Amino acid sequence: MGTLHRRPAFYRLLSTLVLVATLLAALPAPAAAAPSHGNAPAPQAYYSYYTVQPGDSLSSIAWRFGVTVSALMSANGLANANHIYVGQQLRIPTGGGSCVRYHTVSYGQTLSGIAAWYGVSTYRLAQANNIGNYNYVYAGQVLCIPAWGAPAPAGGVWYTVTYGDTLSGIAWRYGVSMYAIMAANTLSSANRILVGQTLWIPSGYYAPPPSPAPTPTPAPVVTTGGPWTVLYYNNKDLSGAPAVTRVDSKVHFDWGAGSPDSAVHSDGFSALWTAINTFETGTYRFTATADDGVRVYVDGTQVIDNWQVHPATESSGEIALAAGSHTVQVRYFEETGVASIYVRWVKK
Description:
By secondary structure, the chain is of the alpha+beta class. The chain has helices at residues 2-26, 36-39, 58-65, 69-76, 111-118, 122-128, 167-174, 178-184, and strands spanning 47-51, 89-93, 99-104, 142-146, 157-160, 198-201, 228-233, 244-248, 252-256, 269-279, 282-291, 293-298, 301-306, 313-321, 324-334, 339-347. 26% of the residues are buried.
């Protein structure tokens, strides 16, 4: 009898446990937590920082980061836009703490490509989202698009780089950011474009063709004349018999504390060079750099007169010549110390 009384109690307990389990199974399961990057808003941008490099100006830095000069001055307490220095750290306002929109990264997209689409620099986009590795974004990531960026229009045009072009100038002409052009053409440096290089301008705008490249002015041809017959004297006034007579290919020497020849003194000597040279019709500028005194004559007419003791000093003079042969004469003396002379001329 005892066993019969215990069995109903056991079944009642078992039925209760089954009922509780059934009720628990009917409750809704908790939602799995989404990855932290799925719906979380991107961090808001306030300031990034930039260290001034040689050649930088406040306007070029403003252009690079897509801000105004006045915004940079205000952010850094600058009173004069021309007073920045190499090594100075500047605060770059990156949108006043607001995102103009958010972008969800799709499979295959890159940070530089997204930056190009929105017309902002890769640097500013990375700073706005606390991204340290520019090569790592992932599908589903939500990015803050900082101010001063807007979707770029579809399409674009091809542009061939011409003489005198800069990437910043091309970007200004087409109304796009310099970084958009760099991203569209996988350029690693804004300073490395070549004449004849074809660039894709991701803007959809058409700019008038650039003005023809200016014809560069050829550099003047520097002439040293010769061969020169030269007389070296062991005195400063070109007197008496010469110690050495020889032919020099040009009058261009730096003897230091020495002398032109073992037979010539290292101090207190002089020299006389003479050469017959052919000239075209025109005006010629003669230049002599000498330590110490020097005089230059053409057909007996003095063109340069600097007959004094001085360190290496440049002296010049001009003379009009008719086409043909003309005799050029150079006179020189050395007092003490180092000795040097260099004579040349150019047609103006």
